[in-house]
């Protein structure tokens, strides 16, 4: 293989990785049936969290709402992704989830419809997380948190036990907000 062809192949591979190395290719469906295109949030920090209404970590919805209220005016977007994949701990309909979250936690951040995370029907966002950060980053339970920087790259991730208002999450969010 000549040197020029080799360099062209390497550049092509790098370009492909750059194209798929950010979150903007993904979409979710909102709890109300609207399309949430992550590309609409280019240049803004994102927090994406897989959730469940009947989980031992469900009280984190209060902290998520507090986080959203504290940083919404600084372009932070939070998207909760309800799922029944971990312990069958989600309610049976999108309406029930929305009513539960609104009534009990007064959520104002974005909620998606009930979404598969694991298996062949798992949402591609979570497979992307695994590709970007490895097996440990893939949700093992409800309330895994993913911080996406202004360039659409995975900044950091946190397991269920890390509270949304923990010092390490807040510090990373503030760093992402300041990185303009």
Question: If you had to describe this structure to a student in words, what would you say it looks like?
Answer:
There is one protein chain. The strands form 2 sheets. The protein has a 5-stranded mixed beta sheet, with helices on both faces. A two-stranded antiparallel sheet has the order 1-2. The chain has one domain (3-178): Glutaredoxin, CATH 3.40.30. Strand 3 (46-51), helix 2 (60-71) and strand 4 (77-82) form a beta-alpha-beta unit. It has helices at residues 3-20, 60-71, 94-105, 124-133, 167-178, and strands at 27-29, 35-37, 46-51, 77-82, 110-111, 145-148, 154-158. The longest helix is centred in the first third of the chain and has 18 residues, at 3-20. The chain has 180 residues and is of the alpha/beta class. It has 5 helices and 7 strands, in the order H-E-E-E-H-E-H-E-H-E-E-H.
**Tally the helices: what do you get?**
5
- The count of strands amounts to 7
Determine the N-to-C terminus distance.
Answer: 43 Å
In percent, how helical is the residue content?
Answer: 25-40%
Main β-sheet: number of strands, strand sense, barrel status?
5 strands, mixed
| Silhouette | globular
List the uncertain runs.
10-19
CATH class: Alpha Beta
Number of domains: 1
CATH H level, superfamily name = Glutaredoxin
The assigned CATH architecture is 3-Layer(aba) Sandwich
CATH topology: Glutaredoxin
DSSP strand content: 15-25%
Mean pLDDT level: 90
**Major β-sheet strand ordering:** 5-4-3-6-7
Radius of gyration: 17 Å
Helix/strand/pairing category: alpha/beta
The sequence of SSEs as H and E is HEEEHEHEHEEH
């Amino acid at each position: 293989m000549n040197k020029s062809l080799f360099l062209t192949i390497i550049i092509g591979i790098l370009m492909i990785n750059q194209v798929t190395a950010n979150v903007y290719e993904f979409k979710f469906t909102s709890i109300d049936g609207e399309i949430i295109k992550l590309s609409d949030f280019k240049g803004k920090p994102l927090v994406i969290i897989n959730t469940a209404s009947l989980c031992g970590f469900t009280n984190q919805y209060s902290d998520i709402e507090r986080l959203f209220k504290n940083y919404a005016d600084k372009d932070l977007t939070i998207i909760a992704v309800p799922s029944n994949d971990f312990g069958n701990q989600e309610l049976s309909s999108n309406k029930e989830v929305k009513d539960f979250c609104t009534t009990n936690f007064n959520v104002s951040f974005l909620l998606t419809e009930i979404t598969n995370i694991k298996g062949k029907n798992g949402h591609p966002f979570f497979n992307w997380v695994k590709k970007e950060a490895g097996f440990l980053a893939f949700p093992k339970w409800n309330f895994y948190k993913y911080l996406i920087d202004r360039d659409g790259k995975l900044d950091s991730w946190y397991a269920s036990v890390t509270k949304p208002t923990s010092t390490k999450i807040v510090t990373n969010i503030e760093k992402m907000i300041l990185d303009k």
